Amino acid sequence: DHGVSSSLFQNPSKLHLTLGTLVLLNEQEIQKACDLLQRCKEDFVDQIAGGKPLTVEVAGVEYMNDDPAMTDVLYAKVHMKDGSDRLQLIADQLVERFVASGLMLKEWDRVKLHATVMNTLFRKDPSAEERNNTMAGKSSFKERESFNGRNILKLFENFYFGEVQLDSVRLSQRFSSDASGYYATSGQL
User: Residue limits of the A-kinase anchor protein 7-like phosphoesterase domain (predicted)?
Assistant: First the structure.
């Protein structure tokens, strides 16, 4: 389909749920975020999670924008296997605490639980992509080139990816990798 290429897919080693974005400019801010994360663990995370990993199911796909023919982000839907809202409660309370601390800006009323599967920001080498698609007359690419996600959405609307045990919250560093291939981590609970 138009605009679809393998470079749009998330690296499987880096699959994650984003709760929010922090801009930590120095070691003190990183330490403040780590300390706050530990306080959250003591104040509510352990209680809500019952001290155990949360079992979530990943099933179905959705897209972020208004037009499926012009998709920029396609994600897998995530929900608690037991049907509870414990993951949503933890995510929302963590963001609330980080916003209150001044380390995060409030963007939404609640966290949208999702695992990004395809993102046009991951697209590599647009000039090679242009040659491969023989799109004559298009001399430059904007930062993002949307893709037509209609068929993917139809085919994988209810696709069952599986279940996973969520056992940590991490302060991950964008554009980085550790030895496992996952993001380098500044702190975690």
Answer: 3-187
